[in-house]
Design goal:
four-stranded antiparallel β-sheet; 10 strands; 184 residues; alpha+beta; 2 domains; Immunoglobulin-like; 2 helices; disordered N terminus
């Protein structure tokens, strides 16, 4: 019983940390009402929850726009226990000074799925086609870049092991990038 309470306590601590992330950038995430409440349900069901939003008027002229999202997922950890993963994405970030900054390059939402014979990386790059994507693989790091008009995407993904380029195949359809890395 104490182990269950400890695990529940750890999950609640992670939820509290997620709430801090959502509220840190000057309270701009207030419009995501009910989002955090669903985290409890998420932890119980082992599902994924994701929310995004667009921030307007971050500059005096009102032209600068930012996209920020947070994805909460539960999955099985290395010991078979449930883990809560919080992954932010978008182009809004907070500097160490506390200042909110909007980058020209957006960070797409990316999932890494470990299968017995391969690793599958899935990225969401809305509107980007295969000819507009560039992948760079260096040992256990996969860097993806994409562009659609003025919108640029970039993400560096840490892989669970090293791979070589001949172990990699990929497709992109309707802005969904799928990279398959075969295990040796």
């Amino acid at each position: 019983m104490a182990k269950v309470r400890k695990e529940r306590s750890e999950k609640l601590k992670k939820v509290d940390e997620a709430v801090e992330i959502c509220t840190s950038l000057g309270g701009i995430f207030g419009k995501f009402g009910g989002f955090v409440e669903k985290l409890g349900e998420l932890a119980e069901k082992g599902e994924e929850l994701s929310q995004t939003g667009e921030l307007k008027g971050l500059d005096p002229e009102g032209k600068l726009r930012g996209v920020y999202g947070v994805s909460f997922k539960t999955c099985l950890g290395p010991e078979g226990e449930q883990e809560l993963k919080v992954e932010p994405f978008g182009n809004v970030r907070e500097e160490p000074s506390g200042e909110t900054v909007v980058d020209d390059v957006r960070e797409p939402l990316v999932d890494v799925h470990q299968e017995e014979d391969h690793v599958l990386v899935i990225g969401e790059l809305p509107g980007v086609s295969k000819q507009d994507i560039e992948l760079e693989l260096s040992e256990d790091r996969l860097t993806l870049r994409g562009r659609r008009g003025d919108t640029k995407y970039r993400k560096e993904v840490v892989l669970p092991q090293s791979f070589s380029a001949d172990q990699m195949t990929w497709t992109c359809k309707n802005g969904i990038l799928k990279v398959r890395l075969e295990r040796s």
